[in-house]
């Protein structure tokens, strides 16, 4: 099932430069910063009610986010929707003729399973399916 908006990804040149607007000016709460090597980005999560804002800073010139900033400048990069059973959701989209960038999920920030839909299939918006990582045992 597709549930709600998990986060909105915002492409920025520098997390350090962008963060004070969100935490200082807007007064939102910074949660964590993480390197997502597979995507060649460093991400910072900011809590905004039940949703999050994910600042995405490229860590390499061949990162998809570096290409995005070069072409379009900083700005909204993707919308991530929370889903259950991500592999079923991906298959469902493929059966409906939707062009998926990922035909199986991969690991994203926080250990979540993620998959992207091509923006051409969704009105020019890069949509991410995001399935939360299974909770770790504390012991
Ligand atoms: N939102 C909307 N449109 C986008 C886009 C985005 N984020 N990124 C690229 N596009 C558009 C481009 O403007 C271009 O449109 P036109 O053909 O009309 O000019 C088209 O898509 C092709 O773009 P491109 O610059 O030639 O780039 P590629 O085709 O090489 O790659 C994409 C585009 C979406 C397939 C690639 O960026 C991708 O695979 N993205 C998914 C992975 C990703 O973005 N990872 C970073 C975030 C990771 C995370 O959140 O953890």
TrEMBL record:
InterPro entries: Glyas_Bleomycin-R_OHBP_Dase (IPR029068), Glyoxalase_1_CS (IPR018146), MeMalonyl-CoA_epimerase (IPR017515), MMCE/EMCE_epimerase (IPR051785), VOC_core (IPR037523). Its EC number is 5.1.99.1. The keyword Transferase does not apply. Keywords: Isomerase, Metal-binding. The keyword Acetylation does not apply. It is an enzyme of class 5 (isomerase). It comes from the Bacteria. Residues 4-132 form the VOC domain. GO terms for molecular function: methylmalonyl-CoA epimerase activity. Belongs to the methylmalonyl-CoA epimerase family. This is Methylmalonyl-CoA/ethylmalonyl-CoA epimerase. It comes from Sutcliffiella tianshenii.
């Amino acid at each position: 099932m597709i549930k709600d908006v998990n986060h909105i990804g915002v492409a920025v040149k520098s997390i350090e430069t962008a963060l004070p607007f969100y935490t200082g000016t807007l007064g939102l709460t910074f949660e964590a910063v993480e390197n997502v090597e597979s995507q060649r980005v460093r991400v910072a999560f900011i809590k905004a009610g039940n949703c999050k804002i994910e600042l995405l800073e490229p860590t390499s010139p061949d990162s998809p986010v570096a290409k995005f900033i070069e072409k379009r400048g900083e700005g909204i990069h993707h919308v991530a929707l929370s889903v259950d059973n991500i592999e079923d959701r991906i298959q469902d989209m493929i059966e409906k003729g939707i062009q998926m960038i990922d035909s199986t999920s991969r690991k994203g920030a926080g250990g979540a399973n993620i998959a992207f839909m091509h923006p051409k299939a969704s009105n020019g918006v890069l949509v991410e399916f995001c399935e939360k990582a299974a909770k770790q045992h504390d012991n």
